[in-house]
Structure formats: C-alpha cells, structure tokens
Design goal:
406 residues, alpha/beta, seven-stranded parallel beta sheet, six-stranded parallel beta sheet, 18 helices, 48% helix
C-alpha cells in the first residue's frame, strides 16, 4: 500500500480554522487513491482537534529537535511526505531527506506567509505595499523551503501569479490547488427567514482581529440605518480584548465559537468581512458561498476567489462604500437573491472537487515516476539542500544535544 506521512503544524481543527478544513480535503484526495496515511505532529491536541481515527488515519506525537523522529520516519518509509507550512519543512525536511531520500516531498503553504507579512507591515504603517516589504526573513525562509521541496501547493491563483511572474519560481515546482467543494447547499432559508449580520473568524489570527476592529468602526453607521439589525461576531479562541467590544445596546455581539457554521450562516442574512490584509483564500467566504449566504468584503478578501465571475454580494472599495453596500444587500431582496446565485456559480465553476482531483493525483504519480530527473532540473533546490539545509540540520542537532545534557 502507498504510504503518505503528513507532518502537521497543529492537529487539524476544521471547525476552528480554514487550514483545518483544507487539511481534511487533502487527506480525502490521497485516501481516494488508496494511500495509507499517518499524521505526525509535535503540538498539543485541543478539545477541538479532529479525531483522525474516524478516517482510519494513524497518528503519533513527535518531538522537536529529537532524533526519535528519524526512527519513526524510517519505519514508516513513506512514498510521499506532506509538510504543513514551511516552518515544518525547516524543522523536519532534512531528516526526511536523510532517511527517506526517495520520498516525494510536498509543501502545503496554506497561504504565502511572506505575502501576509508584507501586507501586515504596510497596513500597520498605513501605507501602500512596496516591493521591499516582501523581502523579509519570512520571505527568504519560505522561498528556500519551496525550492527544497519537490512540489509546493498554492491555494490562490493570485499567489501562483506572484510566485511565477514576480519571483520567477519555475512552474514545475508549483501546483495550484484551492479549497475543494463536494457540493453546495441550495436548500437553505430564504431572504425573509433570515435576519442580522454575521462575522466569523478565529480570533488568534491577526487579520481576523483587525477585521473585527474594522467592523466596530463601521457598525454605528450601519446600525443607524437599520436599528433592528444586530451584528453577531463568531470565532474560536475569543480573546479578552475581543470580549470588551461586546455591546448589547449597540447590537454588536461577540458570540464566540460557532458549534455549527452551517446553522449560524442559515440564520443570518449577510456576512460582513472587511478584511484589511492577509493572503490565500478566505475560508469564511468560501463556506458562505457553499451555504448560500451573500457577503460583502474587500479586494483582499475576494482575492483569488471569483475570477471573472460576479461576487456573491459586493466587493467594497472604502469604508463608506462598505457601509452603503451592507445596508443595500441587507434590504434589497432581489440583489440578495442574485448575490446568492453568484456564490453558487463561483463554487460550481471554480472550486468543485471534480475539477481538480484527477489532475492533482496524476501530477503526484508523474513526479514519483520521474523524481530523479525532476530534482536534477531543480538545481537551486540542490544548492539549498547542500548549504542552508546543513545550517538548520546542525542547529537542530545542537539543540538536541543541549536538551539531552539538561
């Protein structure tokens, strides 16, 4: 049986983060091709970690900077290793290469961390992004990781274009694989059966927190025009500073974790997502389209999602536009219905699982059969394996030796 080892940054939490849902989608693709899957992770499990045993997946807790991993990976002897974000490849990539040199190494970026970092810097300095913002330590580390791997998965068409056009990464090292949808749910409550606005997002993710702050700023103007409306702010891991924004009188309600996204979406009329910066695809907007909930967002929020199709609501250009469009979409039933249909079309034409699964697995099979020639062409990756990889290797060995003496 073909063996896949996934090394996770955290244990997947599909009800808390889009990254958790993405991981389960990847698992599903490989299981359909009859891969035996083992999930390794050094993080602690939470009460909300998905029970991977339900999917017949073996799991094991591993240690950072510890040679016990060498024995584990050697015994598993995988055909394919999937690193969950570049930090994991830095930590374990050299060990995989050393003990399983013939394993296909795949990096799942989730989103390009250096892009999110660059936008965050520009946002917090209240200015437009410039090219130099990209060139952070995160950028150098993430690109090095991409070159060291045999294939890197990018979730957004925008990020594919940035990687290829701006940073000249060879297309043979990259693969576009967005969120995947099994189906949309068109049997949902209608316009008149819904009320209130909704926002959702894990509070530990900084762009989500900034989105909530934007909403707090916008909300009074919306509430003035729609006095009966409330804004229900959902999200896992509510912080103390977030709880302080709760205000019953204003109708700005911090609700915390949603037990079921489908249920809270079904009750709500409009999703508000004035996302100021970030990267990748936005899980909240993807799920809203699947579940028939129109939304208002920014160009960053919509990035890589609708292509040349109409958005399932509105993409705002500034604060006043966002406020006006929120009021319009909340009150105009015809525009709301059209927005809902637009969302279904985006899912059907751009994210349906059947559009991607066969081509993706064909790519994996092709690389496995031609791994030596593929790696020979990636000479920059070989250089990085020889030089910078050695530095991470010996730093890790030094930490391990230090820990053993303690």
């Amino acid at each position: 049986m073909k063996q896949l080892v996934i090394i996770g940054t955290v244990w997947p939490e599909p009800n808390s983060t889009a990254a958790g849902s993405r991981m389960l989608q990847l698992i599903s693709l490989f299981q359909k091709q009859e891969y035996n899957i083992t999930f390794l992770c050094s993080a602690s499990r939470s009460d909300f970690s998905y029970d991977l045993s339900q999917l017949s997946i073996a799991t094991q807790t591993i240690q950072l900077n510890d040679s016990s991993f060498d024995t584990i990976i050697s015994d598993l002897n995988p055909n394919v290793v999937l690193f969950d974000r570049f930090m994991i490849e830095e930590q374990y990539g050299w060990r995989v290469m050393e003990h399983c040199p013939n394993a296909l190494r795949i990096l799942d970026t989730e989103d390009l961390h250096f892009l999110r970092k660059a936008r965050e810097v520009a946002f917090k300095q209240n200015r437009e992004l410039i090219f130099e913002d990209y060139l952070s330590d995160v950028f150098k580390r993430e690109l090095a990781s991409i070159y060291r791997c045999d294939l890197t998965l990018l979730i957004s068409e925008y990020e594919m274009e940035l990687a290829i056009q701006t940073f000249k990464i060879d297309t043979s090292l990259l693969y576009y694989l967005p969120f995947l949808s099994e189906q949309t749910n068109e049997k949902v409550p209608n316009f008149n059966e819904r009320k209130h606005f909704i926002s959702i997002g894990n509070f530990l993710h900084e762009p989500n927190w900034q989105t909530v702050l934007q909403l707090k700023q916008f909300w009074k103007s919306i509430k003035k025009e729609l006095p009966e409306a409330e804004l229900h702010v959902y999200g896992a891991y509510v912080t103390e500073k977030a709880k302080q924004l709760h205000n019953e009188k204003e109708g700005f309600l911090i609700k915390g974790r949603a037990e079921s996204v489908a249920e809270v979406y079904a009750k709500s009329r409009v999703l508000l997502a004035p996302i100021p910066y970030g990267a990748g695809l936005k899980g909240k907007l993807f799920e809203a389209m699947q579940l028939g909930l129109p939304s208002i967002t920014t160009s960053v929020g919509a990035e890589g999602m609708n292509g040349n199709l109409d958005w399932n609501g509105f993409i705002s250009i500034n604060e006043n536009d966002f406020i006006n469009k929120a009021i319009l979409l909340y009150t105009d039933e015809e525009k709301w219905k059209n927005a809902q249909l637009n969302g279904y079309q985006i899912i059907e034409k751009r994210f349906k699982k059947t559009l991607f699964e066969s081509d993706f697995m064909a790519k994996i099979n092709e690389l496995q059969h031609n791994l030596k020639s593929h790696r020979n062409k990636n000479f920059l990756g070989q250089i990085l394996q020889h030089q910078s990889l050695q530095s991470t290797k010996y730093m890790s060995k030094w930490i391990e030796a230090k820990n053993n003496k303690a």
